[in-house]
Each structure stands twice: as C-alpha cells, then as structure tokens.
Write a structure and sequence with these properties.
Length: 152
C-alpha cells in the first residue's frame, strides 16, 4: 500500500477578540489577519450613523495610518446604549483590538509605539470611561434635586 500524503497542518487563525465600552454600549471587535477590511455590524465603516461623528470613527486610522491596518481584518459587533455611545465604544474596540493583535502576533516595540500614539491623543481610545448615570432617589424628581419645600 502506498502512503497517502499528509495534509498540510493548518495553523490556528491569528485572531484576538477585544471589547470597548461607553455607558451601556458594548462593542466587541474581532481582529484577525487579513487585508484591511473593517466592518461594523456587517456594514462598512463609512456607512455607520450618525454622519456627524464619522470623524470620531476615523481617528484610530488617521492617527496610526492605513499601513498598520492593512494586514488585519476587523469585524465589530455593537449593541446597547445610544448612537453616540456606540460610536465611542466602536472606536475604543478598534483601537484596543489593534494593540492586542500587535502584542500577540507582531512585536512588543510596535505595540508600545501604537499604544503611546493613541494614549497621547485621547486616553479614552484605550481606557473605558467609568462614569455612569446616577440612580433616582426618593424625596425628589431626580438623583440630586429635591422637591420644593413649603411651610404652609
């Protein structure tokens, strides 16, 4: 019997999964080796609403340059929160996923360089904002304000 050739050993896909948060919006970015494709909930990045905050989504790309994103595909799933919170969560997830990918699969020096550029521009690209809405209490219409006091 002739020996059958062994199939080429498949390497596990190089991918990282990272999340970004803002208020109650959560964006999960799945970053893997590819050719520069970026999609949010199945749509290209330039179709994400609201149009006024399109520049906010482009910030990681403008800061780091297209060449750093050319070797990776990023797919983002986002849910919860409002539109603006979702935009901030998406940009944070994209930034964090690229840093994590470079740390795991490229080298530490380029990861540190990327991280420094992002942190110097805006810390919220890498670190989640801990502020949350304060809950309402009794004795007033909202969290801090009280009902008007009357003596008669």
């Amino acid at each position: 019997m002739a020996e059958q050739p062994q199939p080429a050993t498949k390497q596990p896909p190089q991918s990282v999964q990272v999340f970004g948060r803002k208020k109650t919006a959560t964006a999960v970015a799945h970053c893997k080796r590819g050719n520069g494709l970026v999609k949010v909930n199945g749509k290209p990045l330039h179709l994400v609403e609201p149009r006024g905050l399109q520049y906010k989504l482009q910030e990681p790309f403008l800061l780091l340059g297209k060449d750093r994103f050319s070797g990776v595909d990023i797919r983002v799933r986002v849910k919860g929160g409002g539109r603006i919170s979702q935009i901030y969560a998406i940009r944070q997830a994209i930034s964090k996923s690229l840093v994590a990918y470079y740390q795991k699969y490229v080298d530490e020096v380029s990861k540190k360089e990327i991280k420094d550029i992002l942190a110097q521009f805006d810390k919220s690209l890498l670190v989640a904002d801990p502020r949350r809405c304060e809950s309402k209490k009794f004795g007033g219409p909202s969290a801090r304000s009280r009902y008007q006091k009357s003596y008669r």
